[in-house]
């Protein structure tokens, strides 16, 4: 059992969600799809299909309760190492979601963006992403960031490269480089850092997710596998977050 589950058994803690004090930005590592499928004797791809349904439900719930930003880890820079069949299945699920999103972003007032290196994706997927990002640009409800071909180190390396070019061209003085300057060159430029990062499936590691942005994030780990993740589990994570004492290096 995860520590967090024990934490919830502590009856001195409040367990309800204070809807007036929600984190602005929640990020989720959608982990455990493969194990969920294995437990049922299904192919791993069935786990990803179930996981993509969970993503839809959780995004809808976040929009309904007034979360401003939801970032999800859909495919890492390391996930290309998986069997081609599995990679193709995940890309297929993303295409399916993008087709639906073309209408749903307007209907549900959702802004949809993708963080990660898009050049490695199929031209079709790149075009669909571009279309939906543009179409949803002015939406004012939940802002969903799908991290796709995303790696935290890769993101930072790209920012360093672009800053080095600006220095070499004489456009900037290295003395002007500060934390904001770097933040402005990440995929997340303009998005507040996630206050709460959730990892289901019992794994307790960061796995190259939002390395820069997570400097002061609160983590929540649960044994629930991503396809089984519900709005109730999200409420538990938010309630745990609301019980934390965030000091940002102060006392
Ligand atoms: C990690 O679980 C999950 C992934 C690498 C893929 C996540 C993709 C989706 C949920 C589907 C597409 C997303 C959208 C936004 C429509 P794992 O396979 O590593 O699980 P395991 O650790 O149990 O093997």
Primary descriptors:
disordered N terminus
Write the topology of this structure.
Blueprint lengths: L2 H7 L15 E5 L3 H7 L4 H22 L3 E8 L7 H24 L3 E5 L7 H13 L7 E8 L1 H17 L10 H5 L12 E4 L18 E4 L9 H12 L9
Parallel strand pairs: 1-2, 1-5, 2-4, 3-4, 5-6
Question: Residue-averaged pLDDT, rounded?
Answer: 94
**What would the principal axes of the Cα set say about the shape?**
globular
- Ligands (ions, cofactors included): farnesyl diphosphate
Structural class: alpha/beta
Major sheet strand order:
3-4-2-1-5-6
Low-confidence stretches: 3-12
Helix segment tally: 8
**How many beta-strand runs?**
6
Strand content: 5-15%
* Major sheet details: 6 strands, parallel
């Amino acid at each position: 059992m995860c520590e967090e589950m024990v934490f919830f058994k502590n009856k001195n803690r409040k367990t309800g969600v204070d809807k007036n004090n929600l984190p602005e930005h929640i990020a989720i590592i959608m982990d455990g799809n493969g194990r969920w499928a294995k437990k049922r004797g299904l192919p791993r791809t069935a786990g990803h299909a179930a996981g993509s349904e969970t993503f839809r439900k959780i995004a809808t719930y976040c929009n309904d309760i007034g979360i401003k930003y939801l970032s999800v880890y859909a495919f890492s820079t390391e996930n290309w190492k998986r069997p081609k069949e599995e990679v193709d299945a995940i890309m297929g699920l993303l295409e399916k979601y993008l087709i639906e999103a073309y209408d749903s972003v307007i209907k549900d007032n959702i802004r949809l963006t993708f963080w990660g290196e898009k050049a490695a994706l199929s031209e079709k997927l790149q075009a669909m992403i571009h279309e939906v990002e543009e179409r949803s640009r002015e939406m004012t409800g939940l802002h969903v960031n799908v991290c796709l071909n995303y790696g935290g180190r890769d993101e930072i390396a790209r920012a360093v490269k672009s800053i080095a070019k600006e220095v070499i061209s004489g456009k900037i003085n290295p003395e002007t480089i500060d934390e904001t300057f770097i933040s402005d060159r990440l995929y997340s430029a303009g998005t507040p850092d996630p206050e709460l990062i959730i990892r289901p499936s019992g794994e307790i590691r960061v796995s190259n997710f939002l390395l820069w942005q997570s400097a002061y994030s609160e983590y929540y780990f649960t044994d629930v596998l991503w396809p089984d993740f519900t709005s109730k589990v999200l409420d538990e994570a938010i309630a745990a977050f609301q019980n934390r004492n965030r000091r940002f290096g102060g006392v």
